[in-house]
Structure formats: structure tokens, C-alpha cells
Amino acid sequence: MRSKLSSGLKPVAFVLLLIVLWDLAIRVFHVPPYQIPAPMEVVRTLWTDWPELLSQAVPTTEATLAGFALSAAFGIPAAMLIASSKTVEDYVYPLLVFSQSIPKVAIAPLFVVWFGFGMEPKVLITSVITFFPLLVNSIAGARSVDVDRLELAKSLGASRWQSFTKITFPSSLPFIFAGLNMAAVLSILGAIVGEFVGAQAGLGVLILQYNSNLDIASVYSLLVVLAAMGLTMHFSMRYLERRFCFWAQRSRESAATEIV
What we know:
Number of helices: 10
CATH architecture: Orthogonal Bundle
Helix content: over 70%
Distance between the termini: 20 Å
CATH topology: MetI-like fold
Number of domains: 1
């Protein structure tokens, strides 16, 4: 417990140090507030504008979670299929790689044209941005399985489905959660990009409004909210990883103990 508390306090202390240095740099170099606001000004803005920030965070959070869930629903099965079939890999994977070379900002307006200014384009943009990192990590996980274990299961009469559910998929879970963790953070970026392109509400819309009004303190307050959302998504994935991949966590801890 003491070790976990100490590890949790270290990033908090580092953030506080950065805030102190931020405030000190503004005072020493006389940075004008329309360029970089003081930390207390950002805190004051958060305190006064929190009802509006909270209400605008709801549609952004909905788009983030929906897009993340959509990419996970398609990305993980697609990765397992590509890893298990050479034919599918030869035909499908190059197309997926090609699609990732297209800038998402360039195709985002097309989703608005096709689906309007509602929730659908934001969800689709989020899923497109988060799909490929999750896919690549999941494929790496499926291919990292020890071949000897699969051969042993086959020699004992296990079917392909039994080998997949008992060996391949559980062994891939650490890689899958690594991809989920990356996708969870990127999903917020996808939702904001969707709101930049075309939306009626959300934190992305507020960022555009504050930028046009040169309300820099409010922009920084929005960045704090987005950072908090990203941390929440990250630690949620870490919790689920510890819950469902506890055996991998113990293996890493044992390896670290042996190294020390």
C-alpha cells in the first residue's frame, strides 16, 4: 500500500512542480496573458465555467466512448482473423495499411456530408482514428503465441476453436490491452477532430469559439478537462488489464523482482 501510494504521489508532485515553474516563468519573463495565462487564471476559469464545461463534455464523452467501443468491436475480431488466415492477411491487411496513409482530417468532412452534424460522424471519425493501433497490437499479440503450445493442444485433440479460446486469445490479451490503452487515449482526439469539422455541441466546438474570441485562459481550461478525460480512460484500461490479465501483471512483477 505504501509503495502504491508513493508511486501515485510522484506524478502529482511532478505536475505541481511544472505548475510552479509555469507560474514562475510567466512572472520572470512577463509573458502577456493573451499568449500564456497564469495557472491561477486557468483555475479561476475552471471554477466559474465548470457548469458549461460539464454540459459540453457530455456529447464529447459519448462520442469518445461510442467510437472506442466501435473500433474495439471490429478491430479485435479483424486482428484475430488476419493473424489466423494468410489469405485474409494478403487481401485485407494491405488495404487497411493504405487507408491509414490517408489523413483523417482530410476525410472527416466527408463523414459530415454523409451523416450530417449529429453524433454519427464524430463516432465514425473516432473509430477510424483508433482502429489501426488496436488492430496492429492485437495482431502482434495473436502472433506472439508459443507455437509449441498450439502443437501440443492439437496433438491432444483440441479443435481450432478450443486452441483459440484457451491459448491464442488469452495469450494475446496483454497486447490487446496495450492497443486498447492507446486507442482509449486517441479516442478523445478523434471526438475533438469530429467536433472541429462539424458539430453542434461539444468541447471541440468550445475550443473553436474560445480561439476565435482569443480567450486563452478558457482554452487552457478545456485542455485541462481533456487531459482529465484522457487520464480517466487510461486508468480505466489499466484497471481492466489488472482485472483480466492479472497473470501477466504477476509475471512482470516477478521478472522485475528477479532483475532487482
